[in-house]
Amino acid sequence: YYQMFAKALSTMELEQFQDASGQQHDWRKELAGQLFQRQQSNGSWVNENSRWLEGDPNLATAYALMALKYCE
Questions:
Q1: What residues contact residue 38 under an 8 Å CB cut-off, 6+ apart?
Q2: How do the pLDDT tens digits run along the chain, 72 residues long?
Q3: What is the pTM of this model?
Q4: Class of residue 41 by CB neighbours under 10 A (exposed 0-12, middle 13-18, buried 19+)
Q5: Distance of CA 34 to the CA centre of its chain
Q6: Which of 10, 34, 38, 39 has its Cα between 20 and 30 A from that of 49?
Protein backbone atom coordinates (compact mmCIF):
# COMPACT_ATOMS: atom_id res chain seq x y z
CA TYR A 1 0.00 0.00 0.00
CA TYR A 2 2.82 2.42 0.76
CA GLN A 3 4.31 1.95 -2.69
CA MET A 4 0.98 2.58 -4.43
CA PHE A 5 0.29 5.57 -2.18
CA ALA A 6 3.64 7.10 -3.07
CA LYS A 7 3.23 6.40 -6.77
CA ALA A 8 -0.23 7.98 -6.85
CA LEU A 9 0.77 11.17 -5.02
CA SER A 10 3.93 11.50 -7.07
CA THR A 11 1.96 11.10 -10.31
CA MET A 12 -0.45 13.79 -9.11
CA GLU A 13 2.62 16.03 -8.51
CA LEU A 14 1.24 16.67 -5.04
CA GLU A 15 3.84 17.99 -2.60
CA GLN A 16 1.58 18.24 0.42
CA PHE A 17 -2.01 17.45 1.25
CA GLN A 18 -4.47 18.61 3.84
CA ASP A 19 -6.27 16.07 6.03
CA ALA A 20 -9.87 16.31 7.26
CA SER A 21 -8.79 18.31 10.33
CA GLY A 22 -7.02 20.89 8.16
CA GLN A 23 -3.47 19.80 8.98
CA GLN A 24 -0.94 19.93 6.13
CA HIS A 25 1.24 16.86 5.51
CA ASP A 26 4.54 16.56 3.68
CA TRP A 27 3.75 13.04 2.50
CA ARG A 28 7.29 12.26 1.33
CA LYS A 29 8.83 13.08 4.70
CA GLU A 30 6.10 11.31 6.67
CA LEU A 31 6.12 8.21 4.48
CA ALA A 32 9.90 7.89 4.65
CA GLY A 33 9.70 8.26 8.43
CA GLN A 34 7.10 5.50 8.70
CA LEU A 35 9.12 3.18 6.49
CA PHE A 36 12.33 3.77 8.43
CA GLN A 37 10.49 3.02 11.69
CA ARG A 38 9.30 -0.30 10.25
CA GLN A 39 12.70 -1.38 8.93
CA GLN A 40 14.03 -4.54 10.56
CA SER A 41 17.42 -4.63 12.30
CA ASN A 42 18.88 -6.56 9.35
CA GLY A 43 17.84 -3.79 6.94
CA SER A 44 14.82 -5.56 5.48
CA TRP A 45 11.11 -4.88 5.72
CA VAL A 46 8.38 -7.43 6.32
CA ASN A 47 4.63 -7.14 6.64
CA GLU A 48 3.23 -8.86 9.73
CA ASN A 49 0.22 -9.77 7.60
CA SER A 50 1.51 -12.31 5.11
CA ARG A 51 -1.41 -11.84 2.71
CA TRP A 52 -0.27 -11.55 -0.91
CA LEU A 53 3.16 -12.89 0.11
CA GLU A 54 4.05 -9.61 1.84
CA GLY A 55 5.32 -11.66 4.78
CA ASP A 56 8.28 -12.50 2.53
CA PRO A 57 11.02 -10.00 3.40
CA ASN A 58 12.36 -10.10 -0.16
CA LEU A 59 9.07 -8.89 -1.59
CA ALA A 60 8.27 -6.47 1.25
CA THR A 61 11.75 -4.94 1.03
CA ALA A 62 11.38 -4.44 -2.71
CA TYR A 63 8.06 -2.66 -2.18
CA ALA A 64 9.52 -0.50 0.58
CA LEU A 65 12.48 0.51 -1.58
CA MET A 66 10.17 1.39 -4.47
CA ALA A 67 8.10 3.55 -2.11
CA LEU A 68 11.22 5.27 -0.78
CA LYS A 69 12.30 6.08 -4.34
CA TYR A 70 9.24 8.33 -4.61
CA CYS A 71 10.29 10.12 -1.41
CA GLU A 72 13.39 11.67 -2.98
A1: 45, 64
A2: 899 999 999 999 989 999 999 999 999 999 999 999 999 999 999 988 777 777 799 999 999 999 999 998
A3: 0.84
A4: exposed
A5: 7
A6: 10
